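Subject: design request, 144 residues
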């Protein structure tokens, strides 16, 4: 059975247009990179999973927020540098870039995808991944 792509057939609901920023290249010259952001409504049962480490009397836990939209950010670099695309989930709380804890996207089958890191089979595996991230961060801070 083919998987449906709920985002593919959606029309943009808010196109913010093109915004340029400057990027330095090897020769010290400045070239412009173009960034295009498009926001489309989320369709289906997508959820943002957020890991919360234990805090005082509160136990370790995971909570979920519904994803209400997706931001598609396309960076077009000059000449041979190419194009990159980043897709960000948006909830009523905003984008997860602002979160200080581990987060992932919960799929309808219960798996949780930590972007560019790993696919967790279930919430227990996601909690373990969050715990390891917090431990690694603590070890990194102690080294300083």
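Subject: RE: design request

Done. Sequence follows.
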């Amino acid at each position: 059975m083919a998987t449906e792509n709920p985002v593919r057939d959606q029309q943009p609901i808010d196109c913010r247009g093109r915004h340029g920023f400057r990027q330095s290249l090897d020769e010290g010259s400045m070239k412009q990179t173009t960034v295009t952001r498009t926001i489309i409504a989320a369709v289906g049962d997508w959820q943002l999973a957020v890991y919360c480490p234990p805090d005082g009397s509160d136990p370790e836990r995971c909570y979920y927020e519904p994803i209400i939209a997706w931001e598609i950010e396309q960076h077009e670099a000059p000449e041979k540098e190419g194009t990159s695309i980043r897709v960000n989930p948006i909830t009523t709380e905003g984008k997860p870039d602002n979160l200080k804890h581990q987060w992932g996207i919960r799929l309808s089958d219960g798996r949780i995808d930590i972007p560019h890191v790993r696919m967790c089979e279930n919430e227990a595996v996601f909690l373990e991944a969050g715990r390891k991230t917090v431990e690694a961060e603590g070890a990194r801070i102690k080294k300083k």
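The radius of gyration is 18 Å.
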